Amino acid sequence: MNRALSRSVVAIAALGAASFAQAADIKIGVAAALTGGAGQYGNAIRNGFQLAVEEINAAGGVNGDKIVLQIEDEQGKKEEAINVFKKLIFQDRVLMVFGPTLSNSAQAAHPIAQAAKTPAFGTSNTADGITSIGNFVFRNSVTEADVLPATIKKAVEVAGVKKVAVLYGNDDVFTKSGYDNFKKALEDLKIPVTTTETFAKGDVDFKAQLTKIKATNPDAIVLSALVAEGGPVMVAARQLGIEVPIIGGNGMNSPRVFELAKDRSDNLWVGSPWSSNNDTPANTKFIAAYKAKYNAAPDQFAAQAYDALYIVSTALKGVKLTNKLEADRLALRDALPAVKYTGATGAFQFAQVKDKAGKPAGYDAVQTPIVMVTRGNAYVIQK
Ligand code: 1QQ
Q1: Residue 113 carries which DSSP code?
Q2: Contact 361/63 with Cβ under 8 angstroms?
Q3: Is 144-272 the same fold as 3-142+279-367?
Q4: What is the pLDDT of residues 228-261, one digit of tens each?
């Protein structure tokens, strides 16, 4: 063998080794709010993903390939979510991106994934319209539109709620969408609204709104809030002597409520497909594994992230990855819609939604919500 030829043989061998090594890692991005007001949600989400990736890789990965998560902090801010999505998609060249944590950020960041033909998968976004962005957008979080009617209906049946006051954040995509869906659910059930009050992100004093609410003597307060504001709202309401049920959306389904509202956290009604009291085999296994790893109890956000990685790994098992990023992103997108999976959050499948023009777009979760009420710093299933 002459020298030039032997050199090229070495080069080809090196190339082969490099592409083999690349094929063995499936790089997946996670954009989560690890700091800031939404940090409680984002850290639970990161924990859920990290537990799932360990389990999946320990069980042989995806057809022998290991999943590697690249986790970035988007701080619960839409500008940061845009930056993180761009970095993960164009610089790190991940196969797909999970997140961001808030719908407010997803509405800003998901169009980037859609334009780059990269699957974006929300595990905690529940506002209307997120998956209408396009056919690369997925979520396994159940929408406010699906959950709130069930929560209100249960409170009407069990707690005899006949008229309610409404309080919501009017500067966030999720809290506004929660308000729209509460309003619709109340209209459908013919429940009159005594007054509608608003607040903004970062507010700490809710006395004016709650004093007005108290004067209208409602049977319940319907609250569309993220927990950073919703926790203090609960404290302020009870301090003013308002003891009626507080009916919340997804933002209030976080153990952070108990840290913020402490002994004033009872009688909060929420709905979710996940409950710590749900003792299915998949959930029992998840809760035990989570406690063993983190020495703390999981929440809904951890459970949804955990299931989401299993949903993606199920899809990937049917995909022949080529190491050509564009083709692989498309193949994953095409494989996801058919996945049916039963995990910590119960039986799951996707349903395609339409965009604003009525054309088929992204995919929402089909799952059954469970209604829960807080008692003694725990969410208890309300039968
Ligand atoms: C959204 C939500 C939040 C409560 C996520 C943490 O549901 O922003 O859509």
Answers
A1: H
A2: no
A3: yes
A4: 999 999 999 999 999 999 999 999 999 999 999 9
Cα–Cα dist 99/53, whole Å: 16
The residue ranges of DSSP E strands in the chain, in sequence order, are 25-32, 66-73, 97-98, 120-122, 137-139, 164-169, 193-199, 220-224, 246-248, 268-272, 340-343, 346-354, 360-366, 370-374, 379-381
Site to substitute for ligand 1 among 46, 121, 174, most atoms within 8 A of C-beta = 174
- Give CA 379 to chain center in angstroms: 18
Rounded to whole angstroms, the Cα distance separating 238 from 262 reads 11
Give CA–CA dist 320/68, Å, rounded. 18
DSSP string, 76-101: T-HHHHHHHHHIIIIIS--S-EE--S
Per-residue pLDDT tens over the stretch 111-136: 999 999 999 999 999 999 999 999 99
Using the 8-state DSSP alphabet, how is residue 365 labeled?
E
**Which of 121, 125, 142 to probe ligand 1 with, by most ligand atoms within 8 A of CB?**
125
Ligand 1: atom nearest CA of 104 is 8
Half-sphere exposure of 64 (CA within 13 A, CB side): 7
Task: In whole angstroms, give the CA distance from residue 327 to residue 337.
Answer: 17
Q: Whose CA is closest to atom 9 on ligand 1?
A: 125
CATH architecture of 144-272: 3-Layer(aba) Sandwich (3.40)
CB 366 within 8 A of CB 350: yes
Q: Where are the domains of the chain?
A: 3-142+279-367, 144-272
Tokens describing residue 58: 């320990």
ipTM of model:
0.98
Strand-pairing partners, residue 243, are none
Closest C-alpha among 243, 358, 345, 347 to residue 300? 345
For residue 118, how far is its CA from the centre of ligand 1 (angstroms)? 22
Q: Is 3-142+279-367 assigned to CATH 3.40.50.300?
A: no
Q: Write the residue with the smallest CA distance to atom 4 of ligand 1.
A: 251
Structure tokens at 34: 């690890």
Contact 24, 62 (CB under 8 A): no
C-alpha closest to that of 152 among 300, 371, 313? 371
Q: What is the pTM of this model?
A: 0.94
